[in-house]
Amino acid sequence: MRVPFIKMHGLGNDFVVLDARVEAVPPITSALASALADRHTGIGCDQLILLEPADAADFRMRIFNADGSEVEACGNATRAVGLLHGRPARIETLGGIVSALPADAGIAVEMGKPRFEWNDIPLAYAMDTHAMPVAWETLESPIAVNVGNPHVIFFVPDCDGVELDRLGPEIEHDPLFPERINVNVATIVARDAIRLRVWERVAGLTRACGTGACATAIGAMRRGLVNRTVKVTLPGGPLAIEWREDGEIVMTGPATESFRGSFDPADYGISA
Fold this sequence. Notes:
This protein is α+β, with helices and mostly antiparallel strands. It contains four helices and 19 strands. The protein is globular, with a radius of gyration of 18 Å.
């Protein structure tokens, strides 16, 4: 038995999508997810995406990092599966229900409402998440936001000058963050523009992170640094983020299907 897959990406953040709504898919174990994600011996991706039927939404999306761990949300993957679905959809994730619909600039995703309480991030103990009284070398006083998964954001004069490959893992694994954390360093360019780099928990430095763009934009808006609609430019390209008056975050940007193929689960020690 061969299992079909679809390779997709959003601004270079790439995915292997398995659609269990229409084809039988073997159980997704940590070992299988990491094997498929391996860029030398597998298909290669940042995340493995599994689509399943759902009762409370059009379908369910499960997201597995390259190490096999399952995470709550991924904005770029949501745009990718929105493109694949081809019409407006409500999508169930571990982080809650999100909506995706075609837009002039690609796919618009309603990401839900941000959460700011310390135990929603979560942090190990109570503190003000608007300006956290903590620092790692020159990175200090971050803001923390949960947009389906947890982010901490540092606003700095030059995000490209931060040694994020060194400081990112230190912050990610700090005991302050019991479920680990995504680390964002951002530079305000104008009232409607932000430059951003992201250290994604487990995945490391990434070309694009949709939830990171959302969290960073919301953090900047809360501090009064930018307008309610802003362009966030990551190494892979720009995303448009809007924080609507009803509290919903809307992220709009491109998604691309790269190619399709199939694999034999037996090649990875899995009996289909």
